[in-house]
Amino acid sequence: DETSGGYIDDGKKPRRESRKRQANEFTIIIDRRSGEGLGIDASPEKTGTLEIKSITTGGLVDRWNQSLSEDSREIVRPGMRVIEVNGRYNSAMQLIAACRETEVLHITIMPDAQ
């Protein structure tokens, strides 16, 4: 049934389809309850993701990176993409809104295409 997108539109929030995970993506956990910013500059992409342009020294994402070993595959770098935040995906605006919330963020990152 194409018109309802696979669910009955009864005015309630649709049951969210879970996104198919890619083999090389990873999830970082950032605590924003202190109100600090993530410390990344990211631009919306047509694909519904955010491309990370730069990472601010001392910001929350930089501190995540510092907590990892140098050879960790979970270090966030410019050129990578934010593809999901706390279950929200397929909309750059939704990702931005989720990143602004002052709570614990589960941010799924996709390394740049090799």
TrEMBL record:
This is PDZ domain-containing protein. Residues 1-24 are annotated as: Disordered.
